[in-house]
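S.,

Sequence below, as promised.
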Amino acid sequence: MHLAPETAIEPPFTLRREGEGDVAVLVLEGEVDLVTAPALQTELNSIAPGTSVVIDLCETPFMDSSGLCVLLAATRALDERVHIACVPGGPVRRPFEIALGSPGALKLFATRRQALAAFKPEVDRRRALRPQALRHQH
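The prediction came back faster than expected:
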């Protein structure tokens, strides 16, 4: 009996970073699971501390617990400055709802625009404080 060589089946997945002013936006397309979550982790690890991040899941039909764990870890590592846009519905949504009760809970938004807008008051406050900090140094 001749067996075909094993072939890894990778789910369709792409990840790209976009800038929206002072916010890093990670756009995920495809499935986030045990195979693809490490790519998301690597990208999140490359983001400078203090950076606000929106993770756009608008084109993500599936995410398992490994992807959810990456998002929770990133939220803690980035001082809860992570907003999640377009959480998939159906059974995929249940782990997100459970995670909302954990420390460093995820901040979920229906759209990317809403996720970005939620950072606006914070960005405005930081800009307003910059000149004061400079005046105190002199």
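The first strand starts at residue 13 and ends at 20.

Coffee later?
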